[in-house]
Design a protein that fits this description.
The chain has about 120 residues and is mainly α. It has 6 helices and 2 strands; from the N terminus they run H-H-H-H-H-E-E-H. The protein is about 50% helix and about 10% strand.
Length: about 120
């Protein structure tokens, strides 16, 4: 069941298995083995996969049809943002609401790019 769910998540992510493997810091072959069912992820990797795709481990295991992981009381909500690097590539980062609010404050204090005084 894990391989079927992983395959669906890879397709819906719009990324290649190679890209995902690189972001998970594992070999592309190892990730492909999970997707094809040739290998089962250990508990640590199962949690990493669930976190990466923002789904519950139960969803990956086929024990639940609900994708979203249950939030623990007091756990901050995270938002995924894309940040452009100097080389033009984008990196996805998960930020808490507090981090998002701090960035908003910084952006509000920045001068407007259309200001003729710049």
């Amino acid at each position: 069941m894990i391989n079927k769910r992983l395959g669906d998540l890879v397709v819906s992510s719009g990324k290649t298995q190679f890209q995902i493997a690189k972001e998970l810091n594992i070999s592309p072959q190892r990730f492909n083995f999970y997707v094809t069912g040739k290998r089962e992820p250990d508990n640590e990797m199962l949690n990493s996969l669930a976190n990466y795709f923002s789904v519950s481990a139960d969803y990956l295991l086929g024990r639940s049809s609900k994708k979203e992981p249950a939030k623990k009381d007091g756990e901050p909500k995270t938002n995924t943002v894309k940040i452009a690097g100097r080389d033009g590539t984008f990196v996805e980062k998960k930020l808490s609401d507090d981090q998002i609010n701090a960035l908003k404050l910084i952006i509000e204090q920045m001068p407007d790019a259309t200001d003729p005084r710049l």
